[in-house]
Amino acid sequence: MATVSNISSKLPKHETSIFSVMSKMAYEHDAVNLSQGYPNFDTDKRLKELVYEAMLDGYNQYAPLAGIALLREQIVNKIESLHGKKYDKKTEITVTNGATQALYLAITAFVNPGDEVIVLKPAYDSYEPAIKLNGGIPVLVQLEGEEYKLNFDSIKQKISSKTRMLIINTPHNPSGNVFSNAEMLQLEKLLEGTDIILLSDEVYEHITFDEAKHHSASAFPNLSKRAIICASFGKTFHNTGWKMGYCVAPEELMAEIWKVMEVNVFCVHHPTQRAFAKYLETPKHYLELGEFYQEKRDTFLNLIKDTAFKAIPSKGTYFQLLDYSEISNESDVEFSRKLIKEFGIASIPVSVFNKDQVDYRQLRFCFAKTNETLEKAAEILKKIK
Ligand SMILES: Cc1ncc(COP(=O)(O)O)c(C=O)c1O
Question: Which of 249, 281, 313 is the last residue in one of the domains?
Answer without folding.
Answer: 281
